[in-house]
Amino acid sequence: MRIDLFAMERMQSLHWHRVRYDLSESGVLPMTVEELLRVAGDGREPGFLSTKLGYPLSEGSEELRELIARWYPGATAANVTVVNGGSEANHLALWSLLERRGRLAFMVPNYLQGWGLGRHYAGTTDVFTLRPEGNGAARRWALDLDQLDEVARRKPRVIMVCNPNNPTGAVLSEAEMEAVVVAARRARAWIVADEIYRGAEVDSDRSSATFWGRYDKVVVTSGLSKAFGLPGLRIGWTVAPAKLIEEVWRHHDYTTLTPGMLSDHLARIVMEPDGRERILARTRGIIRRNLPPLEAWLDGFEGLFDYVRPVAGAIVYARYRLPIASIKLVDRIRERCSVLLVPGDLFCGGKGIRFGFGYDVQRTLEGLALVREVLLEEAAKRAPRARSAARGGVSSRSTTRRSKRA
Fold first, then answer.
1. How far apart are CA 323 and CA 270, in angstroms?
2. CB-based burial of residue 293 (10 Å sphere; 0-12 exposed, 13-18 middle, 19+ buried)?
3. How far apart are CA 248 and CA 364, in angstroms?
4. Which residues of the chain have pLDDT under 50?
5. How far apart are CA 127 and CA 19, in angstroms?
6. End of a domain among 262, 277, 292?
7. Interatomic CA distance for residues 318 and 304, integer angstroms
8. What count of Cα atoms within 13 Å lies in the side-chain half-sphere of residue 396?
9. What is the per-residue pLDDT across 69-85, written as a single tens digit (0 to 9) for each?
C-alpha cells in the first residue's frame, strides 16, 4: 500500500541546509552536550565517556522510563517506552492502533504526519479544526466542537490532537480537553495526544496540562526535540496503558529496534526533575526574549497579517491577505531571499505562514528584513484593487490583529 508524500518534511529536508536563513525550525536553539551537563547535570560527573556502546534495552533503560513517567501523574515505567524521536512515537502508536481496523479523526492545522499515517494504515482520515475566535485580549485558537462531534459520530478508532499545537502555538482549554475525552468515550476511540511542545510555554512557568490520566484509552507521544532543545539526541517516548505499550514494542522491533546508548544516558540526566525544569526554564527564556521582535515585525505591515499570539512553542502562525497560495509564496521567498519558511498549505492551514523564532534572534530579524521586501512587492500588486475598494467605502486602515493571552 502506498503512502502519501510527507510534503513538509521533504521540503525542509531539501532546503534547510542550503538557505542562508532557516526560519522553518519550530524548536529553540539546540543545547551542546557541555551546556546540557552544566544546566541539567548540576556539575555531576557525566560518566558517559566510559559507556560501553553495546545494545541498550529496546524499550529504553528502566531508569529513563521511570524518570519520564514522573512527568505524567500516575504513570509508571510500565506505561513508557523510549523510541527515536517524537515522530517515531507517533508512527508506532498509530501503526499499533490502526493496522487492523478503524479510521482516524485528526485535528488541523497540524503537523501532517498523523494525517498521512491515518490514510496509510486506516485508509481514511477525517479532520476537525482549530479556528481563531474572539477579539482583543480574548482572541484565541478554539476547537470547533461541532466538527469534533461530527467526526466522532463516524466511530473513529483514534482521535489525534497536537497540544500544544503545531503550527499555531495554541493550547486547548480544560473544557476543550474534556470535550475531546467525551467525544472519544462516546466513540470508544483512543486519544493520541502529541505533546512534543509541552514545557515551552510563553507566559507560564508551569507545563501545559497533559491528556494523560483523563481517560483510560489515552496515548501521549513526546520527546526531547522541541521544548527541550535537544533534537540531536533523537529521544522520543510513548506513554500509554501497559498492554498497548507491549504492542508498541512489537512494532518497534520492525523499525529502529532501540534508542541510542549515549542518548539514553544523557536523557536520564535531562529528565531528572530538577534538571528538566532548568532546561525548560532556558527554553521559556529564549521564547520570551525572541517573540516580541517578531510580533513587532508582523505588526509593522499595513493590514497584511492576522495572527494570534502563541501560548506555547517557538512558532507563530500568521494568516496573510494576499492573492497567492502559501506554497507559491514561500517558494518565492526562498528563491529570492534564501529564507526558508513553512507554508500553511503543508498544515492544512491555507493562506498562512509558520515563522520559527527560537534561534538567534538577530539572524531571524536579518532574514525577516529580506522577507519584508518580497511581501511588500506582492502587496503592491494588489494595491490598485485595494484603492478601488477604499473608494467604494471599505476602510483601508490596518486590520492586523493579535491577542496576548496569559
1. 46
2. middle
3. 39
4. 386-406
5. 33
6. 277
7. 9
8. 12
9. 999 999 999 999 999 99
CB neighbours (10 Å) of residue 19? 18
Q: Please, what is the Cα angle at 148 between 325 and 109, to 5 degrees?
A: 25
In a domain, 259, yes or no: yes
Residue ranges making up the domain that contains 16: 7-28+279-391
Residue 399, in any domain of the structure? no
pTM here is 0.92
| 227 domain residue, yes or no | yes
Closest alpha carbon to 212 in 114, 68, 73, 59? 73
- Cα 92 from Cα 4, distance rounded (Å): 17
d(CA 375, CA 304): 9
84: domain CATH number? 3.40.640.10
Domain count across the chain:
2
Residue 324's closest CA among 354, 367, 353, 300?
353
Q: What is the pLDDT of residues 136-171, one digit of tens each?
A: 888 999 999 999 999 999 999 999 999 999 999 999
Q: In this structure, are 83 and 171 located in the same domain?
A: yes
User: Which residue do the cell numbers 503550527 mark?
Assistant: 167
